[in-house]
Specification:
Blueprint (H helix, E strand, L loop, with lengths): L1 E6 L3 E7 L5 E8 L6 H9 L8 E6 L3 E2 L2 E2 L9 E2 H8 L3 E5 H8 L8 E5 L9 E6 L3 E9 L2 E6 L12 H10 L8 H5 L3 H11 L7 H9 L2 H11 L3 H24 L5 E5 L2 H4 L1 H4 L2 H7 L6 H5 L3 E4 L4 H14 L1
Parallel strand pairs: 1-4, 4-8, 10-13, 13-14
Antiparallel strand pairs: 1-2, 2-3, 5-6, 6-7, 9-14, 10-11, 11-12
């Protein structure tokens, strides 16, 4: 049996897979309710007694020499050696975007939605841009028939504004963040940040009913729902701006990682705004890179619908280690 996990700032998913990567048992835990990741693993193992052959966890943070300090969860360092003593098996740690990249090998065609058909080159680099609580990026490369995922911290690269409105967004955002990265404007609260900017700088009026809804519920979800329904034009504008910036960063990933095998949009946010991503606005901003325009037109872009891709990727990586 294989133990795998996809750990996030909100939820931690743990599952046991058989040798065919079929889920045997799975549990979801609220990350912030536990003092450490080790506590979550111990809690999971209380209800599971089968011997574990190999273990792999995808974590939101940089992994160095088997250790990871998570970027958005207030835990101590997660240590593979310590965890191996708990699960009684070898433990591998991956960056969560890296796990997402390995998960591409587990996806069916019907778990992908095409935004730009392009012309995929077999064996070409494939890049993942995962939009959730944070912004994760990784690239999957093939060398002599063997796949290798390279985790990055690309989401923490400096945000590069394209037009005057985006320059104003940077200036506004710097009142709260001294340095504005792509994660700040595209991470979990990025849509809220853009909405607040447009509202506070006079680009639209926020309706009272929406302000009340945002006070008691998930702000980003409220803005997205109002944009999708067309009930609030300020929300529509905020979501369009979010999509434009996301498309530009996907284009950045394509040129940085030479992603001739495709760009794959993962994370929880992309499926929730799929209707907007399928509009011409996304592709227009994706390919808008001057002399790279023709190159980008040929890059396929997909949205991943399977929310368990990173979990499956961690299991796939663990299985490869014992195959």
């Amino acid at each position: 049996m294989i133990l795998a996990g996809d750990i996030g700032a909100t939820n931690s998913r743990l599952a046991v897979f058989d040798d065919n990567l079929v889920v045997v048992e799975q549990q979801v835990y609220k990350s912030q309710e536990y003092k450490s990741f080790k506590d979550i693993v111990c809690k999971f193992l209380e209800s599971y007694s089968y011997p574990i052959k190999a273990t792999c966890f995808g974590l939101p943070g940089p992994v160095r020499e088997g250790k990871c300090k998570l970027t958005n969860v207030p835990w101590e360092v997660v240590d593979a050696t310590e965890l191996s003593e708990v699960v009684n098996s070898p433990v591998a740690l991956l960056n969560d975007a890296e796990a997402n990249a390995y998960g591409l090998e587990t996806l069916r065609d019907d778990e992908l939605v095409t935004l730009n058909a392009g012309s995929k080159i077999p064996g070409g680099n494939r890049a993942v841009v995962a939009v959730g609580t944070s912004l994760g990026e990784a690239v999957l490369i093939e060398v002599e028939g063997r796949f290798h995922a390279l985790g990055t911290e690309g989401g923490n690269a400096d945000f590069g504004p394209f037009d005057q409105l985006q320059w104003e967004l940077i200036r506004y955002t710097q009142s709260k963040y001294k340095r504005v990265s792509y994660e700040v404007v595209l991470g979990g609260q990025g849509l809220v940040q853009i909405y607040n900017f447009l509202r506070d700088t006079g680009y639209g009026v926020s309706p009272l009913w929406l302000e009340q809804e945002m006070q008691v519920g998930d702000k980003a979800a409220a803005i997205n729902n109002a944009a999708q329904s067309g009930e609030c034009q300020l929300c529509v504008q905020a979501l369009d701006m979010f999509v434009s910036i996301l498309a530009a960063e996907c284009g950045n990933a394509a040129v940085k990682y030479f992603s001739t095998g495709g760009i794959y949009l993962g994370g929880g946010m992309a499926p929730n705004i799929l209707k907007n991503l399928r509009q011409p606005l996304f592709v227009e901003n994706f390919i808008n890179k001057d002399k790279m325009r023709e190159f980008l037109q040929a890059i396929p872009v997909y949205v991943i619908l399977n929310q368990y891709t990173a979990l499956q990727g961690a299991a796939w990586y663990a299985k490869r280690g014992i195959s």
